[in-house]
Amino acid sequence: MLKTCKIQEKKMHSLYNADIYPDEIRQMILESGQIGIEIANRWMMGWPKRVVNLLIQDMYEDVFQHQLLQEQDVIARASNLSHLAPIEIVVMSGLSLEPPEV
Length: 102
Prior knowledge:
Layout: H1 23-31, H2 33-46, H3 48-56, H4 60-77, H5 86-93
């Protein structure tokens, strides 16, 4: 009897402009999973000056963690909206997609 194994591919996301981040911040983002990497990439691609300012002011980690927790919570509560992409759920929830200005 032959057994078949189903191999699941994990979707790996790359961190955009990873060299901009200090080592500790980069590691924190990479360890935060898919949603965290998507937040970091969205912020860096859309608002690079704000990201740099947050890094310079040593505020990035706090605002990133806050955004990550909010998005994870909204997505987890939207199990009945599984037909939507996570970003659509975040937009519908009213959360800001932008990093804060400093």
